[in-house]
Design goal:
Helices cover 27% and strands 35% of the residues. By secondary structure, it is an alpha+beta fold. α2 packs antiparallel against α3 (144-177).
Amino acid sequence: MKNNAARNFLLGATLLVAGCNSQSDSAQKGPGGSGGGRGGTPEVGYVVVQPTSVALTTELAGRTTPFAVSEVRPQISGVIQRRFFTEGSYVSAGQTLYQIDPRLTEAGQAQAQANLAASEATAEAARVRAERLRPLARMQAVSQQDYTDAAAQARQAQAAVNQQRAALRTAQVNLGFTRVPAPISGRIGRSLFTQGALVTANQTDPLATIQQLDPIFVDIQQSTGELLQLRRMLAQGNVMPAKAGVRLKLEDGSDYGLTGTIQFSEVVVDPGTGTVTLRASFPNPQGVLLPGMFVRAVFAQAVDSRAFLVPQQAVTRDPQGNATVLLVGPGNKAAMRKVAAERTQGAFWVVTAGLNPGDKVITQGVARARPGQPVKPVPENAPQRIDPNRVGPGGAGGARGGAGGR
């Protein structure tokens, strides 16, 4: 009896499970029959790609440097009497910045003037004597030696006059050095010496520093690897050098409104960093760029005449990091192809290898397409089409996803 009861219990449990599975299968199939899913060929949107000229832009780090720098130094020794500029202001070339006590140099100039006057008087007397002895020597009234000595004394006196003139000029120049001018135009920094300070002609510290900031230089660092790659691309013939301007991104991420130009490239490599310095010049009328600022320079070094612009959503990466795209292949079957996509330009990947003119790249519905499976290609952004005969219980559930779905 116990064995019969146990068999009856197991048989009832088996029937119950079978009934549940049958109900589950019926629910999955739904009222429409074999599963109310979206069966059929997936619809995808595609674009036909053609080669175009694409600027190969580069974004590199750089720092700003002044266009010109001048350290203001004294050229004579003395005590500073006055300072004629405001620290941090704009100064013009030739503008007086400091006044050094001129009394000693004024005295030196006066002495040089007196010495010159004395030498000129002596020279005049020697010249007159020589002129008087010349006819007497011809008549042999005086010896020829006396005349020769007189003429030599006249020339020596004239040489002394020239020496005194040079000494006077030196004294005048030294007197001019008591007023320290600005060598260049630009922004002047803080003054390292105040009124009453003693300065010397051979001191190591400058009185102040002037920097010309308009225009301003930006020194850009480019690795030798990138430079060699660029040269190889240029050697292939499909890439041409570019002469586009340089744009700047400031430290806060904003764009600098004015455009610069590349001036030159260094001919040596920095052994410490393995980089080559490119120097660009930028207008800086508002003084936004200050020396030492970190910036990023964006510019085109070359133009690729056979590149393809592919929408970013069409490019995916495999586990190895290789870029791939899905194409509409023969027989309207999806085909995967590896491409070379190393940079972006706006909303596009710049593909430099792997595509041919006229290829149909799937850009919409990529998630529904599988390599080797049939697809229904339509041009990108084609309107969605709805089959009224496949409207399910939930309304428009039987719509066939248009090319806009991904």
